[in-house]
Amino acid sequence: MTTNNTTGTQLAGGPVWDWAAGHGPITGALSATTGAFAAATTGAATAMPPGWALAIGAAGALGHTIAGLRARNAGRTVATRAACWLLGAGWTTWAMATTPLSWTALGSLAALGVGIGTATHSTALYEEAREEEALAAAERQVAAELSADHRAIAAEWVDRIQRVCGITVRVLAVEMWPTGTGFSIDAELPPGGATYDRIAKDAPKLSADARLPHGCTATASPGIHQGRVILDVATVNVLAEERTYPTDYGPLSVLTGIPWGYRTNAEEIRTYLREQCALVVGPTGSGKTNMVHVILAGFARATDVLTWVIDLNAGSAGLPWVLPALSGQLTAPDGAPVRPGIDWLAATHEEATVMLDAVLRIARHRKTVYQDLMARANTDLLPVSPQIPQIMLVVDEGAEILTSTDRTLRQLAGKILEVIRIARAMGVRTVLTALGATGSVLGNLMIRREAKVRVALTGGETEGMDLNRMFPGSRGLRVDQAPYKGSGFLSTPETGVGVFKAWRILPDQIRDITAATAHLHPILDAPSAAAAGEAYARRWEADRTAWLHHTTGTGSDTDTAGPQPAARPGLNLSALRAERPEQEPDADADALAARLMAEIDQTFGTTDEPGTPPPPERQEQEEPPAPRRPGLNLSALRGQNEPPQHAPDAGPPWLAQAIDAIESAGAMGLKPSAVAELVGKDRKTVRAALRAAVKRGELVYRDNGPHSVYVHPDHA
Ligand SMILES: Nc1ncnc2c1ncn2[C@@H]1O[C@H](COP(=O)(O)OP(=O)(O)OP(=O)(O)O)[C@@H](O)[C@H]1O
Questions:
Q1: Do the Cβ atoms of 143 and 163 come closer than 8 Å?
Q2: Architecture per CATH, 258-527
Q3: Atom of ligand 1 at shortest distance to CA of 293?
Q4: Residue 244, ligand 1, Cβ within 6 A
Q5: Which of 262, 351, 531, 653, CA to CA, is 20 to 30 A from 199?
Q6: Where does ATP bind (predicted)?
C-alpha cells in the first residue's frame, strides 16, 4: 500500500511518494515533457488556440525567474529554468498548431526532455558548488579576521573544549579585553542540540586545563542565540591587586544599578536592589567593613535612595559617613555645610527600634497614599524617584540579630523581617551583613527568598565558608579562587554567581564622597516624612545623637588626661554632657527639643571662625590649643550656612528639615501646607515658624495670593 506522507519516511507496505518534494533532473524533465505532450494532445483535440500554450509558458518562465531571484539563485540557474519553460511552451504551441502525434513531434519532444534533464543537472551541480564556496568564503573571512595570535588562541581552546567537554565548537571571534587581563571567545556550538551549559558546567576543569592562575576563571555564558556560547577567560589575576573606589562620584539610581565591585575581567558589577534585598557574609578580617562602605558609597551617589544604617556595634559602619559632615569638617564648593552621607544612623537598640517602627509606618502609609499614583502609572510597585526615594536599610551584622536568642534582639529581628516581608513594593529594601552563612541565617525562608543579591567575602578563610549553601545550584566554587581580602563571590539574579572583589575605600575617600554627593541626596517624600513623624525629624537632635560623643576621639578619660593632639578632629562632648541641664518632665516637647537643638549647636556647632580663639575654659582643657576643633554641625542638615552662634530664637527643631525641603524645591518654593505635611505639624504652627524664619533672613516669602510660597534666599 502506498501512503501519502509529506515527511517522505518509508512506511511498511512499499515506497512512499513524496508529492511535496522538489524535482531532480530526471523527474523534472519527465514532468515537463509529459505535461507538454498532455497539453498539446488535449489542446489539439479540443481545438484550443495554440497561443494559450505560449502564454502559459511565458507566465511559468516569469514566475520561476522571480522565485529564482528571490532564492538568490545564480543567473545561469534562473536563465536555464526560464528557457526550459519557454522551450516546453514553444513545442506545445507548435505541436498544437500541427499535430502532436507525429514522429517529428514525438522525437523533438524526447530531445527536448533530454536537453532539459541535462541542463537541470548541470545547474544543480553549479548551485551546490556555489553554496560550498560561500561557506568556505565565510570561513576564510573568520580566519582573516582572526589575527595570528587570535587563531592560535582559537585553535587552543577548540582543542581544550573538545578534550574537556567532549564537544567541537567553531570559533567565530576572539576579543582581547581592553584591560589586558584576558579575552572572550565567541563560538558556535555543534549541531545536535548542544547548549552553552555543556561548557559552563566544566568551567573549573577548563580553568585547570588552561593552567589559569588562582583567581582567574573561564566562564561560559549564552551567546547571541542558543547555538552560540561566549567564553570569558581571565588570564591576569586582578583580584590580587588593591584597587581603590573609582573617583567618578557621579549620580546613580537604584533603578539602573549600584556598583559593588569588579569581576575578574575588571568590569564593574552592578546590583539591582529596587525589589531585591541583599545579604553580605564575611568573617572578621575578610573585608566586610570595607564592603559596607563601598555599598554606602553607591547609595550615597544614588539620587533616589536614602540610606538608614543600623549598627549596634557603636554605629561604626555609619560613623565615617556622618561625623565629618556633622562636625563641620566638610564644606560644599560654595562653602555651605554638607549633609551626611547617610540619612539616619542607629547605634542602640532603642534608636534601631525607633527607626524600624518609622520604616514600617512609612511602608504602610505609602501603600495607601500612593494608590492613585500607582494606578495612574499602572503598576503595583511604587515608582521610586528622587521625589519618592527608596529607603535602603543597611543592618551591619543584621543576620546575627535575626538569629539571636536575646529577647530585645528578637524584637528587632521581628521588625527587620517584617520590613523585608511587607515593604518591597513600597520601596524599602534591606542589606544585611553576617559574619557567617550559618544554617540559622540561610535557614530563614524570608532571607532565602528575598535576599537574592548575595556576597560571600572569603578573604582566604575556609572555615564556615559553605558556598554551596550561599549560592545553591552553583557548582565548582572554591574559596581558593578568591583568596584575597575584600574578594569573594557575588551573585545577582541578573548575572549569576562569580568571583569578585570590592574596591578598597579609606576614610579620606569616604569624606570626599560625602562632600561630592551631598547635593545628590533626595529628601524623604512628605507623606513618608509625616508617617515617620518626630522620630525621623528629630533623628539628629542632641538627645538622640548623644552617643556620638563617645565616638569622636575624646572621651571623659582623655578629657582630663591633658593635652590632645591638635590635628585630631572630633567632638569633645563628654564634658559638655555634664553641663546639660536636667530636663523638666512636663516641658513642652517642642520647647525642650528647641533648647537641646540650640544647646547642641551652641556647644558642638562649627562655631569657631578660623582664627577665633577658643573660649577660656576650653583653652584650659585643650593645651596646647587645637588650631580648629570642629564640632557637630547641625546646620549641615539644613544645607545652608548658619550664623556662627545659634540664635536662641532659631525656631523649632523641625524648621531645619523644612528649610532644607524649601531649598530643594528651588525657585518654585513650597507652600506652607506642603511644609506642614512634610514636618507633621499643623499649618498655624508652621506658618508662624516660617514667618519668623523670614524675619531672620533664612527664608523669603513670595506673596502670590493662594499660591504664595516660601523660597530659600539662594533661589529667591
Ligand atoms: N577591597 C579590599 N582590597 C584590599 N584590601 C582590603 C579590601 N578590603 C579589606 N582589605 C584589607 O583587609 C583588612 C580588613 O578589612 P575590614 O576591616 O573591612 O575587614 P572586616 O571583615 O570588617 O574585619 P573586622 O570585622 O575584624 O573589622 C583591611 O585593613 C585591609 O587591609
A1: no
A2: 3-Layer(aba) Sandwich (3.40)
A3: 18
A4: no
A5: 262
A6: 282-289
Alpha-carbon span 607 to 602, nearest angstrom = 7
Domain ranges of the chain: 25-139, 146-234, 258-527, 654-716
Q: How far apart are CA 11 and CA 2, in angstroms?
A: 8
Residue 401 CA, chain-centre distance (Å), reads 28
514 lines ligand 1 (CB under 6 A): no
Ligand 1: does its nearest atom lie under 6 Å from the Cβ of 458? no
Residue 323 has which C-alpha cell? 561625623
Beta-strand runs (E) in 247-313: 258-263, 268-271, 278-281, 305-310
Q: What is the pTM of this model?
A: 0.59
Q: Is 283 annotated as a binding residue?
A: yes
How many whole angstroms from 501 Cα to the centroid of ligand 1?
A: 12
Distance from the alpha carbon of residue 284 to the mean position of ligand 1, in angstroms: 8
Tens digits of residue pLDDT in 453-506: 999 998 767 666 778 888 887 777 888 878 889 999 999 998 888 889 999 999
Fold of 654-716: Arc Repressor Mutant, subunit A (1.10.10)
Q: Cβ(49) to ligand 1 under 6 A? A: no
Q: Look at ligand 1, atom 23, and give the residue with the nearest C-alpha.
A: 285
Please tell me what DSSP assigns to residue 19: T
Cα–ligand 1 centroid distance for 285 (angstroms): 5
From the list 43, 105, 115, 106, the residue with the least C-alpha distance to 84 is 115
Cα(168) to centroid(ligand 1), Å: 44
Rg from Cα positions in the chain:
39
pLDDT 10s digits, 513-557: 999 999 999 999 999 999 999 899 999 887 888 777 665 543 333
Q: Are 77 and 126 in contact (CB under 8 A)?
A: yes
For residue 615, say whether it is annotated as part of any ligand binding site: no
Q: Which of 168-172, 208-212, 416-420, 440-444 has the lowest mean pLDDT?
A: 440-444
Q: Known binder of ligand: residue 92?
A: no
By the 8 A CB rule, do 245 and 505 touch? yes
- Answer yes or no: is 286 a known binding residue: yes
